[in-house]
Design the sequence.
């Protein structure tokens, strides 16, 4: 009898739930673990490290690494080819699927790393895009990626450092998102105001739950605004001291 190759057993025991990200990490061959995501027509399976599909393009960890290596031997005016654009879009989609799964599973450091990869890929696109339309087809999602990155980095800081450090991550992410939203057209920028609102709500929730007052960077901004420069200098010294420790 031939070995079964269908996935009926998996689908029967793992229902698809519309509107919900259903993901899990399970054992796989060669002693490794893999990430699975239940979708309407089956299951996506992704590697936990490197490219989600497990491939090493030209022997590199990701296609971005291939492009960065190539760009080092090209003139500054180097423009992406049609094939490279296609491969970039493949990598964007793969990292998106894995990132949202990591967030759903509270694998925050992994989600943060995947968001950082996507942002670096967006930066490369902006620098070498064949046209503005293709650039904007990616840039329109930058606030969304920053939103994910800020969520993940905030929880990493909360778990590994302190509630104050988590709020500092939120402030940094909020500033980055607001800067990008201002650069988008009015229609696009307004679309992400709700995400900014979610981050502000999270910040106030953390303040209440952990009784956190103004952070050092917030105190520094207040001191500079009030022209209290000696106080500002002391706060800068304390910020530098803490960063040296961590």
Sequence:
């Amino acid at each position: 009898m031939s070995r079964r190759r269908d996935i009926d057993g998996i689908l029967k025991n793992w229902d698809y739930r519309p509107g919900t990200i259903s993901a899990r990490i399970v054992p796989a061959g060669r002693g490794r673990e893999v990430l699975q995501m239940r979708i309407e027509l089956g299951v996506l399976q992704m590697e936990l490290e490197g490219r989600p599909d497990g491939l090493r393009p030209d022997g590199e960890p990701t296609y971005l690494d291939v492009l960065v290596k190539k760009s080092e031997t090209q003139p500054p005016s180097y423009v992406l080819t049609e094939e490279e654009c296609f491969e970039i879009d493949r990598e964007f989609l793969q990292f998106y699927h894995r990132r949202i799964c990591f967030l759903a599973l509270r694998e925050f450091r992994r989600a943060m790393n995947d968001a950082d990869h996507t942002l670096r890929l967006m930066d490369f696109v902006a620098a070498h895009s064949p046209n503005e339309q293709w650039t904007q087809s990616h840039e329109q999602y930058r606030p969304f990626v920053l939103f994910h990155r800020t969520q993940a980095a905030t929880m990493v800081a909360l778990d590994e450092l302190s509630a104050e450090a988590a709020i500092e991550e939120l402030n940094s992410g909020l500033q980055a998102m607001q800067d990008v939203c201002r650069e988008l057209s009015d229609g696009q920028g307004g679309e992400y105001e709700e995400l900014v609102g979610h981050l502000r709500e999270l910040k106030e929730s953390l303040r209440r739950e952990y009784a956190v007052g103004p952070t050092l960077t917030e105190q520094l901004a207040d001191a500079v605004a009030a022209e209290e420069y000696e106080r500002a200098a002391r706060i800068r010294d304390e910020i530098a001291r803490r960063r040296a420790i961590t």
